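User: Some background: our group keeps a shared notebook of sequences we're curious about, and every so often someone picks one and asks for a predicted structure to add to the entry. Today it's my turn. The entry only has the sequence so far, pasted here. Could you supply the structure so I can complete it?
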Amino acid sequence: MRIFTVRRFFAAGTMCVPLMLLAPSCAQAVRVNGSLPDFSRLVSRVGPAVVNIRTTPRETPEQAHTPQPGSSITEFFQRFFGIPLPLASRVQTAPQDGDDEIQQGGDVGSGFILSHDGYVMTNAHVVNNAASIIVTLTDQREFRARLIGMDERTDVALVKINATHLPAVTIGDSSKVRVGEWVMAIGSPFGLENTVTAGIVSAKGRDTGDYLPFIQSDVAVNPGNSGGPLINLRGEVIGINSQIYSRTGGFMGISFSIPVDEAMRVATQLKTKGRVVRGRIALETTDVTMGVVSALGLPDAHGALVTNVGPGGPADRAGILPGDIILKFNGHPIDVATDLVRMIGDAKPGARVTLTVWRKGQTHGMPVTVAAMPLEQGADAPDAPTPQAGPGPRGANALGVTVGDIPAAQLNALKLHGGVRVQTVAEPALHAGLQVGDIVLRVGNTDVINAQQFNALAARLDAHKVVAVLVRRGDNVRFLPVWLQAAQK
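Assistant: Of course. Here's the predicted structure to add to the notebook entry:
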């Protein structure tokens, strides 16, 4: 299965769901027929604040004569099936509010009005690279919108139209969303404005590898709904429809929404600064696996394992080392590595924070001064490629590896104080993922100094236990749990 971000597929709506009884508070907000809610009052109240967003893309000289999609339906077939498109017709409408003529065509999405004076929230991908942004209200008035700012990491954008006394949504609290509660979506699937669908929240805090944790629901997803609101039974916006999970590119009952709490924090910065300023401490992390937990004696598989520390960065100056496991950020527990990324990003540059670090069986509180993330900084760099190693001869130790010393000049160049380079790999290290060329930095909680000391450590290993081996591969460091029993099978 694949995660389709809304950059490839526009999110929204929902389908029928099993019967469920509503809590009293929900029953007061929405009229109930039997055991199913009636969403008509919510639609009447919230619907006027949901808008259709149409954009025309910026054209390069090479694209000037390329046919443009005329509707979100043809855009859907072009994106997923490669069907050639005819030249789209561009129907001109009368200028409004002093605007130049408005052209039909281009990408179609959704959005919702945040304030009575014309601020509108949508997805960043809806308005990214747009030459013009046209907002259509439910009363069919059209306005040329001005882009206030967008943030690609969270896929949130803020635009402004020149209008007043507009209907606006009520913002809810996404931290109070309950799994199983009813939700409603309004958007413009295939350009069909103000289409209403409903379903339930399937999960909270769903991590798809992106910057934010998502609200998962069974809201049906169709092209043109991206940027539309996810609404609870109190008529409050709790999310922005954003992604789907699919084998085919079509809706399969799982969709994801950006929590509105996170989106509003982004929108506030976009409104005041035009961009989002995030914190950074210059390190890379990965999740803690159960194998590492078992080998190192951690209480559970929570935290972020440090795989790389940027030289001279805040984490480096604070003494954070590859192989450290960060358990808390300013006292807040870290369940998975992306939690730490989000917490650091939300920290104000210049702030002094405390990381609770697990190292060699002990925890340490380590203060770090947060720096500002450079603009347009992308995702963490991937691991450097390393040649794959086939099975080698059986090693002379329980790990199944042979190692060699690293010349002092190379250690200095790598900024290492010790370690050995793997020369051959056999079971059980081969099964654990060790490769020829890896640098072994630690066995269990003991730092590796040279090959002689490594071999002595390996000779004392308990063959009935799992051993965590800290290795450096390229610029990244990771723990690999080695199950010594594998060598005896």
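Suggested note for the entry: Residues 401-488 form a domain with the Pdz3 Domain fold (CATH 2.30.42.10). The mean pLDDT is 79.
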